[in-house]
Specification:
The structure holds two protein chains of two kinds. By secondary structure, chain A is mostly helical. Chain A has ten helices and no strands. In chain A, helix 2 packs antiparallel against helix 3 and helix 3 packs antiparallel against helix 4. The chains are: A mainly alpha, B mainly alpha.
């Protein structure tokens, strides 16, 4: 399991590094699971598991730096266990969800360590040692993902046998229930997104999107284009009428009005 | 209007340095200063070039380690402003230290709101929607498309935002805020986002009822009855119920456990989990 552990650790290191260096979306389960699958020699299974896992973690977003779960760790380990133990996507979900939740504790611990280091950075500036300051930031950017990779490595090396024993012991109806659960868990993800987006004025559009998909059977990209057109039309209208009201009030907005057009034209 | 002004070679060098460094904005995130530590590091080389006097340089660095937190994808809009103000200050204009911080503090909230709802609520949902279908079929193109749809606008905005805000300065962005432009953009992103969430609620949440019975010699397939009322009525109701629970401040972890318990109870009741009727 050491080689497999290293490969999974490498994936987790890479995606976490890209998350901190530029917020690349590779730490989404869709990509993480595919990478794990490719490195473990089962690319197709990995990609398909990634799709199932992405749905489960869809609503997990970090707002203002607080994360409710660690999808990349959960997805990487869940996929790896499922592939190594020859199981299906339901098993990867069943394992990924609790692992992702536990991994948040790890994130919180790391964040506390950095918080404790803040006075150190202040001291560097007081002593006029900007080289140390830079080194500190770069060290954080590299060491954090390494620690995540290490966590995944240990998870595979130490945990695979235990997980196998558990999976052998479960009766078949457990798997049946997991399949049904996997179907409805995305509802929670969408509910979490709705909590961010919900606003009485725009709620009708939620049902519009639903009907476009349910009755017209449009593919998602077509719905995205229709949605963009509607959103742009409404915004342009609203913005122009807002400008006109201001102009009528006689305030000096002529400059800013022409400036705004530039903003759209540049 | 900004095309009239050309960047000097020094200035574009400075912006390039900031552009490469800004990727690390969230690296040193912590409870006290959030992204503040990295913010100062991002501006470091630029500040060093602006302030030849060492004391001024370190004072500027300290200024930028203060609390800062915004959506990382839009952080460059604020960095460009900080840079243009620091440049004026370095050239001897009378700019208050507090003013430089006030611009940062004033803009980080609105940009965080727009960035989080646009990137995580809208763009990611579109990218996921496109990529997911292909991935479900085991096609690697799904991952490629997902990454591209999300990353290309993000990198473009990071680069363009830096240049734009540096050249236009704080006055322009504040005008844009007051005129409600940013509010309108946020609303547009939310509309698009909620349409996508609605569509994906139908496409991605599945709760097929496998229950069927013969009543008086006639096949009774529960799923067909439900479909004739409204397609996807169960996924829709479950999603809206979850939203309602979250709105009542329910802990998402408990909602998750509730969903799993609910799924198992329908399996035991014989409603789901069996082979689907034709």
């Amino acid at each position: 399991m050491v080689v497999e552990g290293l490969l999974v650790g490498l994936v987790v290191f890479f995606v976490k590094f890209c998350e901190w260096w530029g917020n690349w979306p590779f730490s989404r389960p869709l990509v993480v699971a595919a990478l794990v699958g490719i490195l473990l020699g089962h690319p197709t299974e990995g990609i398909i598991m990634g799709a199932s896992l992405e749905l489960v973690f869809l609503g997990v977003i970090s707002i203002g730096g607080s994360v409710p779960s660690e999808p990349p760790v959960g997805a990487a380990l869940g996929t790896a266990y499922a592939i190594l133990l020859h199981q299906g996507a339901e098993v990867s979900i069943a394992l990924a969800v609790p692992i992702g939740m536990l991994a948040v504790l790890y994130y919180q611990a790391l964040k506390l360590v950095i918080t404790a280091m803040v006075p150190l950075f202040d001291k560097f500036l007081d002593k006029r040692q900007d080289g140390f300051y830079s080194a500190g930031i770069i060290a954080i950017a590299i060491i954090q993902p390494v620690l995540y990779g290490l966590l995944a490595f240990l998870g595979i090396v130490l945990g695979t046998d235990a997980i196998q024993a558990v999976l052998k012991a479960v009766p078949p109806y457990v798997m049946q229930g997991l399949m049904v659960s996997a179907g409805i868990i995305p509802a929670l993800g969408f509910a979490m997104l709705l909590k961010v987006l919900w606003n009485r004025e725009i709620v009708p559009f939620f049902f519009l999107g639903f009907v476009l998909a349910a009755y017209l059977k449009l593919p998602i990209i077509a719905i995205a284009i229709i949605g963009t057109c509607i959103a742009m039309y409404i915004c342009m209208n609203e913005h122009n009428s807002g400008t006109k009201i201001k102009a009528n009030q006689g305030t000096a907005v002529t400059n800013s009005a022409s400036g705004k057009e530039d903003f759209f034209n540049v | 209007m900004y095309k009239d002004k050309a960047l000097s070679a020094d200035e574009s060098k400075m912006l390039t340095s900031v552009f490469w460094r800004q990727h690390l904005l969230v690296a040193g995130i912590n409870h006290v200063r959030m992204q503040g530590l990295a913010y100062a590091w991002i501006l470091k080389n630029a500040l060093k070039k602006l302030y030849t006097n060492e004391a001024d340089y370190y004072a500027a660095m300290k200024r930028h380690t203060q609390f800062f937190n915004t959506a990382p994808q839009l952080g460059t809009f604020i960095m460009g402003l900080s840079l243009s103000m620091e440049k004026e200050k370095a050239e001897g204009k009378d700019i208050d230290d507090d003013a430089i911080n006030a611009v940062k503090v004033g803009l980080m909230g609105p940009f965080a709101g727009i960035g989080d709802s646009f990137f995580q609520g809208t763009l990611r949902i579109i990218a996921t929607g496109v990529g997911l279908g292909l991935s479900q079929a085991g096609n690697i193109l799904g991952i490629v498309l997902f990454s591209l749809i999300y990353s290309v606008p993000m990198v473009w905005l990071r680069y363009y935002g830096l240049k734009l805000s540096y050249m236009l300065g704080s006055k322009y962005l504040q005008e844009a805020m007051e005129s409600g432009l940013l509010k309108v953009i946020t609303k547009g992103a939310s509309i698009l986002g909620i349409i996508m969430v609605g569509a994906m609620t139908f496409q991605m949440v599945s709760f097929p009822i496998s229950f069927q019975a013969k009543i008086g010699g006639v096949d009774f397939v529960l799923q067909k009855v439900l479909d004739s009322i409204c397609l996807g009525i169960l996924p829709l109701s479950i999603t809206l119920f979850c939203y309602w629970l979250l709105k009542k401040q329910a802990n998402p972890a408990y909602v998750l456990i509730g969903l799993i318990v609910f799924a198992y109870s329908t399996v035991f009741a014989g409603l789901t989990g069996g082979p689907m009727p034709k």
